[in-house]
Task: inverse folding
C-alpha cells in the first residue's frame, strides 16, 4: 500500500488505495469494502452536510483517532458508572452501552487496520487534545443515581461533539455513512440517559 500526502510525500496512509488499482476514484469500492460494517448500522440519521475542503489521508486518520478516543472514554465511563448505579434496569443498559462503544471502536479501528495503522492507541487525537469528560466519574461515585446520570450525560455530550466535528469534514462517503450510523445511536443513548436523569430530580 502506498501512502501519499497532498504534496506527494510518502509519510502517511493513502485511504484512496482501498479502491484498488483498476477501480475509479468515485468511492464505489469503498462502499463494497465496508458493506459488512455498514449493515450493522442501518439506522437513517440526519446527515450533516459539509462544504469544507477534501481531507488529506493523514487528516482522515487523525479524525478517526479522535472519534476512537471518545469511544474509549465512553466504553470505560458506561462500565464504571453502571457498576455503581442502584437501578437494575439502568445497570443493564449501561453494560450494553459500554459494549456498544467497544463495537463502534472496533468498526473504526478495522478501517485503520486495513490501511496498516496498528498503533491506534499510541497517538494523540486531532490537535493533541483528548476528551476526558468521563474522567470526573470518581468524584461523583457517591452521589447517587441522579449525579451519576448527570456525569454520563456530560460524557455523551462530548461523544456527540466528537462525531459532529468529524461529520462536518469531507470524509470518504463510506466512512461518513459508518459514522452517521454510529452517531444516530449516540444521540439516542444521550436522550435516554437525559430522560433517566430528569425522572430522578
Result:
Amino acid at each position: 500500500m502506498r501512502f501519499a500526502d497532498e504534496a506527494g510525500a510518502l509519510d502517511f496512509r493513502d485511504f484512496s488505495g482501498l479502491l484498488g488499482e483498476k477501480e475509479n476514484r468515485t468511492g464505489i469500492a469503498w462502499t463494497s469494502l465496508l458493506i459488512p460494517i455498514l449493515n450493522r448500522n442501518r439506522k437513517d440519521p440526519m446527515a450533516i452536510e459539509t462544504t469544507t475542503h477534501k481531507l488529506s489521508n493523514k487528516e482522515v486518520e487523525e479524525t478517526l483517532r479522535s472519534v476512537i478516543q471518545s469511544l474509549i472514554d465512553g466504553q470505560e465511563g458506561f462500565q464504571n458508572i453502571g457498576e455503581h448505579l442502584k437501578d437494575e434496569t439502568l445497570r443493564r443498559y449501561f453494560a450494553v452501552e459500554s459494549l456498544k462503544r467497544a463495537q463502534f471502536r472496533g468498526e473504526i479501528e478495522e478501517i485503520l487496520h486495513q490501511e496498516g495503522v496498528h498503533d491506534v492507541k499510541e497517538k494523540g487525537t486531532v490537535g493533541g487534545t483528548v476528551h476526558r469528560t468521563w474522567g470526573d466519574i470518581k468524584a461523583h461515585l457517591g452521589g447517587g443515581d441522579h449525579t451519576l446520570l448527570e456525569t454520563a450525560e456530560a460524557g455523551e455530550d462530548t461523544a456527540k461533539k466528537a462525531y459532529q466535528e468529524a461529520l462536518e469534514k469531507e470524509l470518504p462517503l463510506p466512512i461518513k455513512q459508518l459514522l452517521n450510523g454510529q452517531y444516530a445511536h449516540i444521540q439516542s443513548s444521550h436522550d435516554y440517559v437525559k430522560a433517566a436523569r430528569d425522572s430522578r430530580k
Notes: The chain has six helices and no strands. The domain at 31-198 is CATH 1.20.1260.10 (Ferritin). Residues 52 and 173 are 14 Å apart (CA to CA). Residues 1-12, 18-32, 122-131 have pLDDT under 50 and may be disordered.
